[in-house]
Structures are given as structure tokens and as C-alpha cells.
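Bit of a strange request maybe. I'm writing a small parser for C-alpha cell strings and I need a real example to test against, not something I typed by hand. Could someone generate the C-alpha cells for this chain?
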Amino acid sequence: MLVETEGKKIALDAGIKVKDQDMEVTGLPKLSTGVHVDAALIGHAHLDHSGFSPELYRRYNTPFFMTIPTQGLADLLIKDAKKVDPQLPYERKDIDGTFNKTVGVPYDMEHSIGSVKFTYYDAGHIPGSAMMEIKTGKKKLFYTSDFKLDETRLLAGATVPEGRFDALIIESTYAKKYHPPRREIERKIINIIKKTLKDGGHVLFPTFAVGRTQELAMVLADYQINAPIFIDGMGKTASEITMSYPRYVKNAGKLRNALENLKPVGKNKNEVLKEPSVIIATSGMLEGGPAISYLLALNEMKKQEDIDSSVVFTGYCVEGTGGWLLQNKQMVKLKPRKEGQKEKQVPINLNVFYEPLSAHAGRNELFTFIEKLNPSKIICVHGDDCEGFAAELKENGYDAVAPEIGEVIQI
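Reply from user aminoacidic:
Good idea to test on real output. This should exercise your parser:
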């Protein structure tokens, strides 16, 4: 999103379209010829909000503003994206340049870009995530990026700003869906774990590195699972970065204790399968990472030893990803190892569950947030049916719109 005001062009987030927030890139934004980006306000570290930042730096030498945890977590994810997809247009020097030209922004403190004032608020989405209030002249704009009002084990809910706004740009990921009560989902997860372990199997959680790994660790610690809990993949480093900024989580002591319960996997991955265990591994959509190797190993155990294991997804999988295929067609795709080889699809004979611990606002949270801000205009973005959400808001008396890509809206 590009805001033009007071002679400045300011990007609100700079993401790339991804299948998996840890891994595979599927699209880059297009900027019109002649556009210059004077500054970029980054809401949080997920690649669909931060992954285009090095390209803005490469093209325009753009300065960036983000919270300090977002700097560390975005650096981790962007470097991994470049490693996985060398075709990304920017280079390692551009990634480093991005973060050398980044200003760390605390919550609840006003900053300036020329005569444009902005303030970051806690978004409650992942550690360091932020929403943005932007003031220019007599106009006030609010951008949610991704947010969650209800508190989770990891984070307090989003901070709702005071005052009236001329426009609200709001994510609408779950505009049509209510989230089930958190404790109800947790109990279902724990029951799956207990039954699987009792039957001699393993429980695999394909998990996003940032936010979900740490949340899941806290859930498992609270219910005192009596089995080894292993962690493998980028979630280990993401957890270390998160713990470097304890003020940005709800209870740093509980998180630290939960992470200490996890056993990091070394080079010998076979130790994980010696006895019934729980495995937290990236990537969350089974598009790469160690989770796939564990999935195949557990599937082989089922074939050879008739041991039933379970795969539990706690996050949404985009259609066509490995996670979506497993949930809907009971198979997983394997990427070719050599040039010229074809992608293979392998049937999986394991118990598969989807028990969401969403970090996005559900339908009721979206409406609560809108009612509290009561903006003059609502711009619906970041959802599968932004048009439907905008139409529903209009029926409720709001001036709402779902813009097309490239559309200009005057405020």
C-alpha cells in the first residue's frame, strides 16, 4: 500500500506473495514506472509484509521504520527466503543495507517523516507486530496490518487507539469466520497428543517459525505433556530472537520456561523417533523445512511397524501447498531434487487434524475494532473476500470499499 501525502510517498508494509510465511515465494508487487518510495512503515516480520523491503532499498534507497523485534525476525525470514528462492531480485547486500537503514520504533511514541506524523501500536499478532496511526494536516489514517484483539498465551491483545479517524485500512483475513474459543482448541490438541502417545505414536506439528512455534510451546508447557518435545528448524532461532526482547511478549518468564522444555534436534534426527514424542518443526504449510522429513519418516513407520502417528496443523494452509494437499487429499508433494525431475505426490497414511491457533482477528474482533474506531471510511484489504466484507459493512451503515490493485482512493 502506498500513501501519498504532504509531498511524501510512504509504503505501509512491503511484502511478497508467499505460499508459506517461512518459505516459498510466488509473486512480487508491481510498482508503476517513475514511482519513488520515500519511506516504508513495516508492520511485522512475516514475508507477506516485509519481504519486498530489500527491493525497495535496492531501487530507491528507502529508509524503513519497524519495531526492534521485527528487525531481527524479518532479517531471519528474508535471508531464508533468498536462500530458498535465489531468483528473488535483491542480493544479500541489499538485505543488509535494508536493516542498516532501519529505524527502531517503540510503541505509543510519535515519530515524523517530514511533516507526516505516525505512531505504532501493539497489534497482538506476533512479537513486535504493529498497527499504525498516520497524521497529516487535519487527516488521520489508521492501518491495522495484521492484528488480533483477543489475548493469547504469547501476547496481549492489540491496543485500540483513541479518537476518530478519517480512514481505517483493515485486514479482513477472517471477515467471514468466527474463531472457536481458544481453550476449546487447546483441549482438542492435548487430547490428540495424549491418545497418539498412548498408542505408541508421535505427534508432528508443522509450524510457522515466528509466533506459532512460541505459542505452541506455551500451550504444551501449560498442559504438562509427559513425553519428549522436540523442536527443529527455523523456530529455534526465531525463539532466541523473541526472547531477546522480553518486553514484547505477555509473560517472558513463562515463555522462557516453555522453550526450555523443548529439546533442540541435532544432526542425529533418528533420536526423535526412538520413543513416542511431540515434534515442532517448520515449515507450517509443508512447503519445505524439516517437517516434511519427519512426515515421511512417520509414514514409513506406519508402513513398516503399523504405528499410528498424528499430524496437527495449527495454522491456515493456502490451497495447493503441501499442507493443504495433506489435509484435503491425504498426500504430500515432494519437490524434484535434480533438474529435469518431476514433482512427486506421495500418499500419507497418518491421522491429520486442523486445530487453528490463529494470530489474526476473527470476525467478531474485526467488528469490535471497527465499532470502537468508528472511522469515516473503511478500506478492506488482505482477505479472500474483501468485496464481500466491504458490502456487509455498507449494509451496516459504514462507508466501505475493497480497492483493486493499483486503484487510487482519495481521503
